[in-house]
Amino acid sequence: MKGGGATAYLLNHHEKARIGKRLDLEEGELGLGRVTKLSTRMRLQEQMRQLRDRYRVALKDEEMKTAFDGLWDTWSSEQGAMIYSDVLSALDLLTLTASVDNRRQIETLRALNQETRDLLEKLIAREVRAG
Prior knowledge:
Elements: E1 5-10, E2 19-24, H1 40-58, H2 62-77, H3 79-83, H4 90-130
Antiparallel strand pairs: 1-2
Helix pairs in contact: 1-2, 1-4
C-alpha cells in the first residue's frame, strides 16, 4: 500500500465478511511469515545468553566469573518464577533473582555463624567449669 503499510485479512470462513487490520511496516521490514512478539521466557533467555556471552566473558576476575556461574544456575532454575512477573524487564528480573539468591546465601551464612558462636560459647563455659 502507499505509505508503507500492509493490509492483512483473517478469514475463518470464506463466506464471512473480511475483517482487516492495517500494519505499518518500516521500509525493508516486509517479509514472509508472521510477526510475533517475543514471549517473556524468550526475552529472559535471550538476555541471559547475552549476559553470558558478553558480560561474563568481559569479567577479568575468576571469582567473579564463578559467582556469575552460580547466578546462572539460579536464573535457570527460577525462570518459572521470573516469567510470571509483568512489571519488571528481563534484566530487572535477573537482578532481582540474583539479589534473592544472595540473600539466601547470606541467611545460610548467618545461621552457620550463629551455630558456630553457640558451640564456642559452650566450649568456653565447659573450660571455665573445668578450670
